[in-house]
Amino acid sequence: MKITLAKTAGFCFGVNRAVDIVEKLAELGEKVCTLGPIIHNAQLVAELEKKGVRIINSPNEAASDEVLVIRSHGVTAAVEEDCEKFAKRVENATCPFVSKIHKIVNERSLMGDIILIAGDEKHKEVEGIRGHVKGESYVFGDEAELEKILKNHPEFCQKSISVVSQTTFHKEIWEKSEKILKKVCTNAIIFDTICNATSKRQTEASELSKISDVMFVVGGRHSSNTNKLFSICSENCNATYLIETADEVKREQLIGAESIGVVAGASTPAGIIKEVISVMTETIKTTDELNIGAEISDDMSFEEALELSLSSLNTDQKVHGVVLAVGPTEIQVDIGRKQTGYVKAEEFSYDTSVKLNEVVKVGDELDLIVMKTNDQEGTIMLSKRRYDNIANWDKIVEACENGTVLEGKVTEIIKGGMIVNALGFKVFIPASQATLTRGADLEPLKGTTVSFKVLEIGRRRRVIGSVRAILQEQRKEIEAKFWENIAVGDVFKGVVKSLTGYGAFVDLGGVDGMVHISELSWQRIKNPAEVVSVGDTLEVYVKDIDTEKKKISLGHKKPDENPWLIFTRDYADKEVVKATIVSMTAYGAFARIIPGVDGLIHISQIADRRIEKPQDELKIGQEVDVKIIGVDEEKKRVSLSIRALLEPAKEEVAEEAAPATEEAVEAPAEEAAE
Ligand code: SF4
Description:
By secondary structure, this protein is α/β, with parallel strands linked by helices. Helices cover 31% and strands 29% of the residues. Strands 11-10-12-1-13 form a five-stranded parallel β-sheet, with helices on both faces. Strands 14-15-16-18-17 form a five-stranded mixed β-barrel. Helix 6 runs parallel beside helix 7. Residues 12-15, 72, 95, 97-98, 167-168, 195, 197-198, 266, 377 line the site of iron/sulfur cluster.
């Protein structure tokens, strides 16, 4: 006995694509609903239901947190709008071949054409097509119905008419209808929109049913294309059975048959077809001859042979194509062959986060690899990712040989280093090669893009890289440029990197300079930490450069903030001012006139009588009125007197007795002011 399985059995491109979209959404944890069952196959629909995929009958049944999938048949333009209104998101899984018909009828009807559609008026695909017509449309199911329409509308002969067909329309009826149209309406523009997959499937079913004793058509009883296959096979073979699952295969159907033919609808999962074949061979206990439409070697198991027949041809051929359309999940590409090329989103780039409509547009040219060719359906599945992968590996090898700099995104921090994804390959960067500072925390680098050099390529394409090598080179370049351009007087805004007892080291942008403690403040300070902290931004200027020793001395104090200058500008000799007692010695008290300028009140100038010690009259922090009785510009000393305010008559005598140059003590600011 010979069992022949049609080459075209199994999912067509459009159905496969729609099921794929739903399954992927469910896998991603999305709440999914489909507008009607996604395919006419109860078993697969039940499987999807188990994964939480809900069937709704109208867009307004979609919950606001659900992704609504429009099935491969397509819907009317109005329903498409409703879907957008009610669902969280819409994934339009309308088969591209059906979308093409929507486009034709929409454009032609807007141009004023009357649209004739060959198909089943009640079929959802035909309803959808009519819903894209902007004017009059008529549907005919066979030649008789077409003739009736033309008879009722004799004016059609004079008018512009466009004719399309349902994708699964009966090929023979279409050809006969075409002849009638060409005879009656010579002005009709006829678009043969029967899907290639459908016509091949029907042709094969017709041929197989002519040479088989028994025919099995596997598919959903509600599936239009399955029913058409059944009708085609029934015309040629009396013993034709339509079955949905393997359970329906009965022994009595097979008895006496020398040859059994099996065809399947476009929405029949491969698993069900395999089960049907298995049950048949098991039932009749024979594997005499199995012809499953593929090149099968002797040592292949039944399973392997069947898998081969259900899978399409794989090639690794490189092709060049032009983008025809860009959708959310795939792009359509013309590669100069009769088949239409498709690149699924996951085959576009190694970066799974890319959004197709952001990175590719109609008219772009792409280099691609052929993954699968399906002549029955007229489709070629292509991959840009795989093409890039081959080209990118060459780039990595070249980078290793030539020291070229590559870029990549840090995807993982692992023990001992981090993983960078570059050109679709994982590159290991050891911790010691990840930063300039050994032992640095690598976590902040996660998610960032880094430049690196390839240090080596190990076995099994293990790539090891170094970010540090790049950072070191960058630092050297910055330093060289810095030393070329730096000049005394240059002003920088630098960051304090470290502090010592004698000053602060400031990063000037790759090169450090030092601000001496005396340069940090006009006040007298004991430690730099009193006025700056690590991380502070300081405005500094270059005081001195030692290019040989690579040392830069920096200044920070601003001349116009010099307290002595402020004092001499704002205060005059003999002026009475308020001052604060800041310290006391045996010979007098120091009083602060302004920060950075303290004057001495000699013990003889504290009171109008003789006192033992300053503490008898004054205390630290006390504010007193004092008279400036002497200013030594050279030594930057100020002499003050309280007594002069108490005894004006004796003031001059006191001043003579205590000249400023002898009594005054150096103001703390004087060193800095020089
Ligand atoms: S039969 Fe053709 S038109 Fe219909 S879904 Fe399949 S590939 Fe698309």
